[in-house]
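Researcher: Quick test of sequence recovery. Tokens follow.
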């Protein structure tokens, strides 16, 4: 039996993918590692095939045409044989002791049908020699199965991201999750759309996922975010339209509030980066983003506009824009994001 499937989407990852894969091999026969070579032009495919040959029954190498990160995740979900599923980006890795603890808990709880394991993740600024752990101790009870109605309140810097989540594989399939190809930031969809199907959550206070941050070409880099703003907008719209929050609120009001907050953050990010572009075209895109939201989901629009953070990123006039950008710069310094 495979308790956990680890999907590793790779594109031109030869310089760092070994660190990632080597960290996953600590799971031994309990796991399967699906390395998806997404049409790389370097030695990524050869390295993946090398691991498959050396570790048969554990590593599977998939060679495919380029389709983007979401395409790699889709392939992993389709092929997964593990009870649980996790995505590990090829420049990141898992901490060994935390990884072993996760597998131990999966085995112990396999008959209790836990739908979602939540673990801490760590931002590693290797060039600066600094690290920052993001935990959920104030939100979920430790090592106790709970539901959405029992969770606490998220702080401004806290939200569930792909790196913190280990879904039961069947939950992902039931949710109909199919990430768009050739699109960045699809991890936001992965960390959002399946949540209403989750009934049983187990939080492990372990620093499992080690997230490398700081490369100039990284998708969370501000300059890169601005250059890919159309993809950010596309993902924001997909997330906003993927779940009926009114239905969720009837069953899980706390989850509905969190999910609305999640959309608010995404709207804020899109709005702020469009402001930073300082062009007429960007301003038109910002107006259209909000107009489309008002037309397609008026209830959500009014909530975002008047009761959440994102409303402050759509203030009228030049002064409103200056206030928004100023607030964004302060938040960057406080929370340490790029």
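Model:
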């Amino acid at each position: 039996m495979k308790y956990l499937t680890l999907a590793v989407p790779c594109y031109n990852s030869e310089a760092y993918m070994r660190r990632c894969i080597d960290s996953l091999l600590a799971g031994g026969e309990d796991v399967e590692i699906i390395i998806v070579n997404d049409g790389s032009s370097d030695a990524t495919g050869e390295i993946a095939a090398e691991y498959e040959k050396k570790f048969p029954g554990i590593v599977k190498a998939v060679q495919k045409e380029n389709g983007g990160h979401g395409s790699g995740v889709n392939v992993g979900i389709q092929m997964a044989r593990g009870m649980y599923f996790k995505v590990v980006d090829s420049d990141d890795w898992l901490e060994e002791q935390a990884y072993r603890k996760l597998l131990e808990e999966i085995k112990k709880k396999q008959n209790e049908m836990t739908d979602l394991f939540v673990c801490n993740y760590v931002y590693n600024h290797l060039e600066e020699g600094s690290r920052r752990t993001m935990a959920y101790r104030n939100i979920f009870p430790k090592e106790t199965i709970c539901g959405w109605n029992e969770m606490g309140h998220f702080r401004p810097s806290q939200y569930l991201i792909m790196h913190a989540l280990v879904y039961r594989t069947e939950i992902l399939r039931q949710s109909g999750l199919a990430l768009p190809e050739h699109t960045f930031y699809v991890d936001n969809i992965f960390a959002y759309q399946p949540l209403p199907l989750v009934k049983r959550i187990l939080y492990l206070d372990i620093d499992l996922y080690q997230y490398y941050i700081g490369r100039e070409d990284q998708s969370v880099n501000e300059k890169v975010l601005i250059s890919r703003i159309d993809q950010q907008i596309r993902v924001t719209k997909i997330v906003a339209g993927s779940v009926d929050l009114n239905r969720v609120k009837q069953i899980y009001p706390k989850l509905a509030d969190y999910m609305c907050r999640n959309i608010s953050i995404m709207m804020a990010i899109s709005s702020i980066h469009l402001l930073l572009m300082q062009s007429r075209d960007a301003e038109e895109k910002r107006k259209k983003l909000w107009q489309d939201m008002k037309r397609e989901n008026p209830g959500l629009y009014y909530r975002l506009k008047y009761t959440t953070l994102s409303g402050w990123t759509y203030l009228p006039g030049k002064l409103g824009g200056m206030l928004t950008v100023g607030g964004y710069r302060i938040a960057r310094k406080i929370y340490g994001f790029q």
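The first strand starts at residue 4 and ends at 10.
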